[in-house]
Amino acid sequence: MKVAIGSTNPVKINAVKYAFKKAYKNCEFVGLEAESEISDQPIGEEVTRKGAFNRAKNVLKKAKADFGIGLEGGVMETEFGMMTSAWCCIIDKKGKASYGGGMNFHLPEIVAEKIRNGGELGPIMDELLNEKDWKKKGGAIEIFTGGLLSRTKAYQRLVEMALTKFVASQWYR
């Protein structure tokens, strides 16, 4: 079974691998750049979900795979302040789509202000941590959970949730 991930980011690739290997045997994984067709910093659940769908759709077609997976991280304003938003979309070669989303946590005001002023979470974290490509490592979630959760593990949960229509298909007819 060929599983195409709409990213070359090792965090996203590993999250998909960990989840799919729990559900299926004999998977071949390929990570390819796939357009999200949204802004670099998605704002709002609907936009973030759309980015995940577009990546899944585009990588499925590009790789001629059995499954296309799109993972998209964004932010959303809430009555409690700015929070993260993350979505996974899985599309099979027949066109069936399934989603997993959530992993919301508060962003510190210093980060939220920079995003409101046009910044993007990844580069903001690099600047604050004096790091390069932190989103390819632990991600903001690892910093703001004090190391309790990595970006890979968080995204793995999203993929597992998005697998519902495929691993428990009898419930989704």
Structural write-up:
The protein is α/β, with parallel strands linked by helices and 173 residues long. It is 42% helix and 22% strand. The protein contains seven helices and five strands, in the order βαβαβββααααα. A hairpin with a 4-residue loop joins β4 and β5. It starts with a strand and ends in a 6-residue tail after the last helix.
Q: What sort of overall outline do the alpha carbons produce when their principal axes are compared?
A: globular
Q: Which strand order do you get reading across the main beta sheet?
A: 2-1-3-4-5
For the CA atoms, what is the radius of gyration? 16 Å
Q: What share of the residues does DSSP label as strand, in percent?
A: 15-25%
Q: What is the N-to-C order of secondary-structure elements (H for helix, E for strand)? A: EHEHEEEHHHHH
Question: Which CATH architecture would you pick?
Answer: Alpha-Beta Complex
Indicate the CATH topology: Maf protein
Mean pLDDT: 97
Largest sheet: 5 strands, mixed
Instruction: Supply the number of helical segments.
Output: 7
- CATH class annotation: Alpha Beta
Please give the share of residues in helix: 40-55%
Gap between N and C termini: 22 Å
Tell how many strands the DSSP assignment holds.
5
Q: Write down the domain tally.
A: 1
